[in-house]
Amino acid sequence: MILSIHHPSLQRQLLPPMLIHAALSPVHHPWLLLLVNQNNVTAQKVVPMAGFRHRRPSEVHRCRRAERGSCNARRRVRYEDDEMEGEDYGRNSEIEMLETYSQSARNQALLVRATVDGEEEVVLIFKGFSSCLSSRTASDPSKSVLPGKAVIQSIDVIKGPFDPCNIEYLEKNLTWEAFKARLQSN
């Protein structure tokens, strides 16, 4: 397929070749190479690379559903080498216990306030996963959200899923000792 476009405004312009996506059949998605010279614009079909494969919408949906399923099943990986990171950052067994508890408490989220080196940190725990709200959460899922030396000050039990605009507290300002007693009784 060769398409030529003649336009008087293009007569004095020299433009580099451009690669554009043609708005043709959504199944084939051909690419067009526009060759622009002084007098005209010529569009020529370009064959995709050998590894390129367009997926139909049903295939994309099926792939996303498979990816979503594997992501939901994935849990945080903890390595034995965590102790080698030093005293500054190690495993926090208290946060791990709260993550385990939140897996069974489906309609609840936990808002944990802790201190690390005199600074307050706020952590949200929901469905077995934790995220630091007051500072940056590490992108490495094998690292604990809070270091091992963190001291939990209070725990708020809120209605899940977490909505920062409308927090509905079920229980507020529980101490770690009171919450730990609840965990041990279950």
Word description of this protein:
The chain is 21% helix and 31% strand. It has 2 domains: 68 residues, no CATH class; 96 residues, no CATH class. The protein is of the alpha+beta class. The N terminus is likely disordered. The radius of gyration is 28 Å and the shape is elongated. The N and C termini lie far apart (71 Å).
Question: How would you concisely characterize the structure shown here?
Answer:
Helices cover 21% and strands 31% of the residues.
Question: What's the main sheet like?
Answer: 5 strands, antiparallel
- Cα-atom radius of gyration: 28 Å
State which percent range the strand residues make up: 25-35%
Question: What string, H for helix and E for strand, traces the elements in order?
Answer: EEEEHHEEEEEH
Unreliable stretches (pLDDT < 50, length at least 5) are: 1-7, 10-29, 63-87
Helix content: 10-25%
Q: In whole angstroms, how far apart are the ends? A: 71 Å
Number of domains: 2
Number of helices: 3
Which outline best applies?
elongated
- The count of DSSP E runs of length 2 or more, i.e. the number of strands, is 9
Mean pLDDT: 68
Question: Structural class given helices, strands, pairing?
Answer: alpha+beta
Strand order of the largest sheet: 7-6-5-8-9
